[in-house]
Each structure stands twice: as structure tokens, then as C-alpha cells.
């Protein structure tokens, strides 16, 4: 070791390098030490600048959601409303006054119906444009127990569609904004506010009973697909009555609004994604939704693409407030969320009170799906015999629900070839290999057919496709033009994306 040091120090270049390294370490240490000392000095200076709480200085009280109370000091009316609401919830409010305020509802729903409504416990998940109008309508109609769930705060842009928010509420949680404003209208209502994000992991706790009472109804007014699917799936699996609002964005025609089963909701991207995800989880129907059949058109509002400079910043998902939440401004006409929210509240009132109501009946297409499934079974057996296999007893790994999903959600009940909507069936797009039969189970033969391999055609088109491609020597490129081939590829890619939710 000593000989290495002597050789190193005897070299002029080595001496220079050693000197530079030592100097760098000393300078770096000095800089870091100076920065640390400067930070300590700044912290000490800041602490000294904070006055002691005493006769000359009083600490400002914070609001219930952590803001300085001096930012928007409550008015005398606000203070009186808070006091009145606190007393009313404890029973110190004349019931005759409540019945007088609800007189119009009372003569409409009768005493029995109004009593059911007043005793109901409703949960509203999502307190923006749709949820705020639904909540306000329910409280004004007599619902006395409301749990509000939303993670977000009121913004300036919220004021074009929010039912009760004012400028003074900007920056405050939406759940507390609604409670504070509605307490001035129906002070006897019990509000339970949860300033939280709804998710699959928290569903059981957030939808739990209130004081032993199971929710009479759940309202879904969420605009995030993951949270919406988690909520609807939980309600369906746990038999909680629920109604969901589909997208009000880019809609403007109130005459196109419908209430019906989710299996029939159309012409809405949010509804389509929700249906597909729920079908993958085994929920295909039984959930009422409010949706609009209005279609995009020339001159109508649309969701603009994200600017290229935003993509250049990296992962687009990181631009959102939370993962999976939209990062673009959704065009919304302020009246439409209100119409959706009031339609939701109207449905809850009618269902809760047992008031007679009828909506447009849903079309049952189960027989059609059974026919398509049987036709597909026959096609697979013919292919098996074509390659010399005994097709007797062969099964295909698809169900009636799978057929309905492909026909309705992927191909919109139209042939991929001609766009016709009659005499439909499903058929393989590409010729299978000779190993498309699974024989691993003794005494049983199963087709290895996958949903992403199927396309929708008319029966006549499928017969030609089977003869010339599946059994013949032609390829899809020989039989169809590029537009059809590209569209099929897009559909299969789309289905492959949704397959991960199964």
C-alpha cells in the first residue's frame, strides 16, 4: 500500500489529479454546508416571524374542511342556518311546518308515499352537475337521510351546472357545499358527507348502512369509468337498488332523454364502455340508467383531441388530477346535467314511494342470440368434419351472453360487410389450424374458439365466407376491400383491449 502511495505521489500527473479531487471535495462540502446553514437560518427566521397567540394576536379559526374562516366569513344568515339545522336534526322543529313545506308532494304521493320518502336513506355518489341536482330535488321532496360521496372541490367552471354552489363555495368540497346550502332549505335533513374517492376497495364501507338502515337507493353520478363500474357491479352483486346517469357531455336535446335498462342504452361512449365492462363482470342487465340517444352531428359539440404538446410532456395519464380521470375539458351545456339529475331523482322518488310508472319496454333478443349461438355451433362442427374430425358432441366455449355482447356491443347489431341488421350470425374471420379442437378431457371435445376471432355478418355473407375462406383457399384480402379488413382489425383490437376485464 505504501509503495503504491509513493509511486502515485511521485508522478506529476497523479499529483495534479489528486489535488483536483481533494479540492473538489472541499469546495462541494463547503457549498453543501453553506446551503444547509442557510436553510436552518431561514427556518429559524420564519419561526421567529410567527407571533405568539396572546392579547395582541388571535389565531384564526379553521372551517370544518381546513380553510381559513376569514376567506369567506359566514354571514349572519349562514350562522342562523347552521344553528337551526343543528336543532332541527335533534327534533326541535315542528313537524307541521315540515308537512306544510312538503304539501305539494303530500297531495301527490299521499300520506303513505310521503312517509316512505321521508324515511328513506339515499346515497349519492358524485356531487357535480348531475349529483347536485338529484340531491337538491330529493331533499326538497322530503328525503331525510342522505349520504354524499365525492372527492372533488367546487371550481369556477362548476358554477355553470352545479345546483347550489356559489362563488363563496369555490375551493370547498362539493359534499360540504351541498350540505351547507341545502340545510338552509330543509334543515331537518341528516347529511353524512364523505369527501372521498369511491373505489372498489372502499365500496363496502362507503355503501354501508346508516344507523342500521340499509340504503333504499344508490345514485351513480360518477363520470369516471373505473369508479362507475365498481359502484354498479357492487350494487348488482349485493342487490342494492341503483340508478346510473350516463354521459350528459356534448348533449343538447332534452327530447332524446330516456330511462331504461343499461342493456338498451345507446349512442353514448360512457354508456358503451360501462356496458362492456359490466358484461365482462357478469352483469348484463337489471340496472336502470338515464341516457340520451342524441347522436353527434355537424356543428355539434365534441370532445377535442388532446394537443400534441401535451403528449410531448410524457404519460398523458399523469396530466390528470387522479389516475384514469379525464385530462380534457368535456363540453357540457349547463342545462343537460340538471335534466339528467332531475330525471334520476324522479325515478328514485317513484320507486321509493311505490308510485305507478312505466318506461319504454326493453326489447328482449334472447331468442335471436340463441339462434346465433346454434348457428355458430353448427359452423364449428362443419369445420371439424371438413378436416376429418368426428364432430359429434363437440362444444364451443361461448354462451348466450357472449353472443349478445359481440352482436350488440362490438358490432352494434350490424354486419361488418354490408351494414345490414337482419339475419345476423357470427363466423370465424380467419381459417383455423387443424389443432382448433381441445381433446385434453377424456371423452370430450371442445372448440378452442375465442370471441376475438369472430365477426358479425348476415347468414348469406357468412355462408360465402365459410365456403371460400374457412374451407377454401382464399384469404380475406382476396374477398374484401381494404376498408372492411381495416375495420375488422380495429374491432378485434378493441375486443382484445376489453378482454382484460373478463
What can you tell me about this protein's structure?
The chain is α/β, with parallel strands linked by helices. The protein has 2 domains: 76-294 and 325-353, 3-Layer(aba) Sandwich (Rossmann fold); 366-501, no CATH class. Helix content is 45%, strand content 9%. The protein has helices at 2-10, 12-49, 76-89, 95-101, 103-119, 129-141, 174-182, 203-206, 225-237, 269-280, 308-311, 335-353, 366-386, 400-410, 459-470, 476-479, 482-498; strands at residues 121-125, 145-149, 190-194, 217-220, 242-245, 257-261, 288-292, 424-428, 437-438, 446-447, 454-458. The chain has a 7-stranded mixed beta sheet, sandwiched between helices. Strands 8-11 form a two-stranded antiparallel sheet. The chain is flat, with a radius of gyration of 32 Å. The model has no long low-confidence stretch (mean pLDDT 84).
In short:
The chain is α/β, with parallel strands linked by helices. 45% of the residues lie in helices and 9% in strands.
Which features would summarize this protein structure in a list?
single chain; 502 residues; alpha/beta; Rossmann fold; 2 domains; 45% helix; ATP-binding
Fold topology:
Elements lengths: L1 H9 L1 H38 L26 H14 L5 H7 L1 H17 L1 E5 L3 H13 L3 E5 L24 H9 L7 E5 L8 H4 L10 E4 L4 H13 L4 E4 L11 E5 L7 H12 L7 E5 L15 H4 L23 H19 L12 H21 L13 H11 L13 E5 L8 E2 L7 E2 L6 E5 H12 L5 H4 L2 H17 L4
Parallel strand pairs: 1-2, 1-4, 2-3, 4-5, 5-7
Antiparallel strand pairs: 6-7, 8-11, 9-10
Subcellular location: Mitochondrion outer membrane
Function: Catalyzes the ATP-dependent dehydration of threonylcarbamoyladenosine at position 37 (t(6)A37) to form cyclic t(6)A37 (ct(6)A37) in tRNAs that read codons beginning with adenine.
Family: Belongs to the HesA/MoeB/ThiF family.
